Amino acid sequence: MRIAHSYFFVEIGLLLSAATITWQSSVWRDLVRPVYVRRIVGVTALWWVVDVLAVRLDLWHFPPGRTLPFRAFGLPLEEFLGLLTHTLVTFILMRFFGAHDSVVHDV
After folding, report:
1. How large is the C-alpha radius of gyration of the chain?
2. pLDDT confidence of 85, banded at 50, 70, 90?
3. SS in 3 state form for 10-58?
4. What is the residue extent of each domain of the chain?
């Protein structure tokens, strides 16, 4: 495995760490509620759009051969998965540690 894929494995490690910390709590049950699914999808979609725009405007690039060959909108597959994973980890930890914000708690 090339070093270039290490970022994705760091994200998976973060998700597994968050899962280990929060496994016995109600966080996981809460994350499948429609309100949280919409928020997670919305935040992830926002970052996907920002990434796609950055690539299209030549502000950022992913060198061919240094990422997986599967691409959508100019972004490699691991970028899509990494953004989703990072969003999940953030919501899980915010929900678990009780961040008092309307983003993660119902009003």
Report:
1. 15
2. confident
3. HHHHHHHHHHHHHCCCCHHHHHCCHHHHHHHHHHHHHHHHHHHHHHHCC
4. 3-96
DSSP one-letter code for 26: S
For residue 38, the one-letter residue type is: R
Mean pLDDT (the chain) is 81
- 40's tokens: 């997670």
Rounded to whole angstroms, how far apart are CA atoms 90 and 84? 10
Let me know: does 7 contact 82? Beta carbons within 8 Å. yes
CB of 77 within 8 A of CB of 13? no
Q: How far, in whole angstroms, is CA 21 from its chain's centroid?
A: 18
pLDDT in tens, 37-53: 899 999 999 999 999 99
More confident residue, 10 or 52: 52
The pTM for the full model equals: 0.72
